[in-house]
Amino acid sequence: MEKNLVIVESPAKAKTIKNFLGKQYLVKSSYGHVRDLSKSKLGVDVENNFSPNYEIPSDKKAVVSELKKLSKQTDTVWLATDEDREGEAISWHLAESLNLDEKKYKRIVFHEITPKAIKQAIENPRKIDTNLVNAQQARRILDRLVGFELSPLLWKKVKPSLSAGRVQSVAVRLIVEREREIKNFKPEVSYRIYAYFQVESKGQKHTFRAELPKRFKTKKEALEFLESCKDAVYIVEKTETKPSKKSPAAPFTTSTLQQEASRKLGFSVARTMTVAQRLYESGMITYMRTDSVNLSNTAIEATKKIILQQYGESYLKTRKYTAKSKGAQEAHEAIRPTFMKENEIKGTQDDQKLYDLIWKRTIASQMSDALFDKTNVTINISTSEHKFQASGEVLKFDGFLKVYIESTDDEEETETSILPPLKTNEKLQLNEINAIQRFSKHPPRYTEASLVKKLEELGIGRPSTYAPTISTIQKREYVVKESKEGVKRNFDFIVLKDNKINETKRSENTGVEKNKLFPTDIGIVVTNFLLEYFNNILDYNFTANLEKEFDDIAKGLNQWNKVIDNFYWTFHEKVEDTNKKSQKFSGERLLGKDPSTGRNVYAKIGRYGPMVQIGDAEEDEKPKFAAILKEQSLENITLKEALDLFKLPRSIGNYEGKELVASIGRYGPYIRFDNKFFSIPADEDPLSINKDRAIELIEEKREAERKKVIKNFDNDSETKILKGRWGPYISHKGKNIKIPKNLNPETIDYNECLELIKQATSDKKKRTTSKKAAKKKK
DNA sequence: CAGTGAGCGAGCTTCCGCTTGACTT
Q1: CA-to-C1' distance for A109 and B16, Å?
Q2: Which helix (H) or strand (E) holds A258?
Q3: In chain A, N or C terminus with fewer CB closer than 10 Å?
């Protein structure tokens, strides 16, 4: 029998460590936290010093009972959870729920997963750090109090099922405020001047571009400048060459991995995390939820070896990265390949692409700087005060750029060109000068990844919550991820060539957005509500200030319930006060009067989302309601658009003896016909759609339905073979059964079908009974 | 899956941070 039970947080980690420890050690995982505040109740006794009531969630009962059983059979339990606030608390919750007394358990931590580090940890056990545990309790309880008092207030004042919290509400605020900035943004016009010169060197002609540092505000000024350049002579006044360098970026953390995978591979943050999880579980990479840029010495050595082998000594420069982000707890290493010598792996395309990114970033982080010569040239214009500037960059040594180039969010393309050799006092031959009208750009909308970056900068949220937070604010319909096509915009393009000025117009596509986050009406109204009554919680520094208090608790300088006490009562009073005093907060806007009845027309948030309303509740006649369209908004909708919405549902004729009705429902515009629903594409309008188009839509759907059926059976109309999103399946009395890949759906006969159905139903039974059995065990 | 919205009132929703699967028509 094993004498020792080691408990870590993750099963994959348990598996690795098992190999390092001898037979005397049984290694198990807690699967994260094992106890938490009640799922549905507040779980905090505010009258009694905020005493928490912890429960073991139903999905953790089996884990806890197994660990409890094993702990009774062993001499020592080694609590080896992560070395941070949450990890310490997990150890404490384990000790509590497994009934481990001080003599029974030992608390250990290791910073890297190597035999040496683990041996060292075992030799240096300690007790649970109660102060650190208390800091975690303060964090947990405060989040609970804020979330569970603010959310019900929103249900009452704005709309049911909404939510608010320390992290998500700030994330939404960032997006709402960015949108507001963009809305108020007035693009500034300027005219940029570019000159193209030609020089001859060693019998070869080279063209290069120079720019005027001065930008003109008006077309008139730009034209005046071009006019002044007629017959001018251009002479190189000064050339200056300076060395410059670029250093590689630090190894990946969760946040930087999400950003790069978004920019380079187009992954959503959720997709990045799913792929990374798979790589971690198969032992290809280190832990993927980390805020540390640190590489273990072992990893640095392995990386060094690869660089020396593949690129040579001049490319090697080992570095220790320590750049801490705000609130970083650094319980893990940076994200890196487990085995640096594996530069390619098997797996899905996504696996390979993400792994490649991680491998390259890790290697590059230990490589030399890239070296450049930067040249700046000043060009004198004989007829003007102004001077042209040209700059060029020559790569002298590629260094880490051989492997990896970090991308940026910056949309402005910065051209770096190579300049031909130029001498002072050299006379230049002008090809042409262009004056181009440019518009300044509004600040960019957030992508999922750039929002994560911003949250990390503010110290809000943790690596394990970035992806879930992004998904929560979309699930609550506070924000939507959308792409937008741009619009054409004309701009002036003026050319001076051969002493003649030629004015033309060119056009560009502007305002293209791909997978950006936009606030919804609900997101805007909720943010406005919270800003009005709870601006302290929406404050970008709220979390950062709290973290200082939690640090004090961890250092034993303050008591956790005092910190909560300080915050809670004024907060709670504000909640009660707002509950009593404030009216419904619906973002209501009076649009005008309905010309046919003279009643008021409003736009507001209703029980089911944004809507328009004719009439007031107090009037004798009941008000009428209509949901607003997806592309409309409370802030912009006009009286006419609102009145149009009441024209639905709308009869548009008959087909096959039945009525065709166009309207808009919960899932968008549709045609109702013969008690069935046919979606109208988003770019078409149910107000103007005609009978012919409706019939076309119905026939299209019928055709698609027909194509969906792979096989029918004459004797049994309730069993069919269909083609679905996840491949062929059997539809049987409303249930769906997947057809295994080794079978051909075209040739399966009826008996085989029945066999598969039988199999699937018995499998399901087995699964549910085994689950019940596991539950019974405890 | 799809037309709701006043009023009455029951019963539901909700936080953040640790971890994985089960399951999708």
Answers
A1: 24
A2: helix A254-265
A3: N
